[in-house]
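Entry 14. Structure prediction run on the chain below.
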Amino acid sequence: MTGVGTVSPEGLEVQVAHRRNPYAYLFDDAGLDALLLELGVRRAASVWRNHTTEEERAPRGRYPRPAMGFVLLDATAGPWVRNEEAVLAVITVGDGGHTFLPNAAAKAAAHRRLGRNNGEAVHVDPHLLATGDFRYGHSADVRGQIVAASSQSTDQDLYEAARLAADFVHAVGDRHADWERRRGAGDWAAPDDTPAPEHRAMTAWFQPS
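Output returned:
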């Protein structure tokens, strides 16, 4: 899917695209892309700052390159959803950032399967790695939102992934709170205050006497 892009104030190209939008009650597809782009520009600023700073001034060490790839999973997707379909969105930063997306995707997929940081498997328990799995790096989970990033060192990737996950969680939370204030009382996260078809189907077999 083709997304949208911009150039950050630091001069890094930022591109985003989403595959799923489970938050349609909060924003349309263009609105989700706009949020992702805003968050991507923040990460571009961090990547550039940590790449151009002097080694002794970089809290996690100087970043080796001004480019990164990020994969966000859909926190609302059930475990039966295939990994390929459970991707919420991708963000790329800098020239060649897209080349790191398979690495980030592999880390996110492992985190989803294992229920914990991908790095705990690849660096501690290699029996959890299958042929074709990624051998390097960490992934982040902030309140159920899994994000993985790739192109820097293990700890640098983890920091950037965790910041993106936290920013996304807070942004969705803020928009939900604003929606609730405008919407008023109700039971369902839907414009017409009705449950999703899945929830009705779960008990459709029951016939009250």
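The beta strands are 4-7, 13-18, 68-73, 87-93, 140-142, 145-150.
Filed with the rest of this week's runs.
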